[in-house]
Amino acid sequence: MLRQWFHQLPELHETGSIQTASRLLSVIWSRIGELERRNRDLEHHPALARAVTWLFRHYADPGGISELAARAGVSTSHLNLLFRRQFGIGPQRYLNELRLSRARQLLANPYWSIAEVAGKSGFPDPNYFSRKFRALYRQTPQECRRTLLSSGWVDHNPEKPGKAGSGGG
């Protein structure tokens, strides 16, 4: 869904055509409407809302779907059913795609290595991260970073290694 048009943004940015920009805005507008409908649907499923909220806040934390189900107050099988009904995919795939989406954003920070981006995204194994990233986006994290940096999609407020959580020293 959103990952498809997000994946196309660098390409659309490079073409610079009015028609392409118009098409992009149309897609974004329809996606926003779709997200609003899904958010309204979440109000009817408090367990699913709790699970999704927790995932967005703790996507990089280790832990399995059974822990997520316990936090949501439902069984693993019921959580799986809720995710499939709402999103068309299971909770593990949802989590992986959320992590990969965040990783794609983090790749715009030129100070972090691919391994650091993987770790910050919830993938302790950079090789596994690279395989999953390539499977979803059809390019390696390195290729994605080059595309982002060359097309101006740079993190303009990058956190340099060793600065975060250093206590000012």
Automatic annotation (TrEMBL):
It comes from bioreactor metagenome. Keywords: DNA-binding, Transcription, Transcription regulation. This is HTH-type transcriptional activator RhaS. Coiled coil: none annotated. Residues 49-147 form the HTH araC/xylS-type domain. It holds the Pfam family HTH_18. GO terms for molecular function: DNA-binding transcription factor activity; sequence-specific DNA binding. The lineage of its organism: unclassified sequences, metagenomes, ecological metagenomes. PROSITE patterns: HTH_ARAC_FAMILY_2.
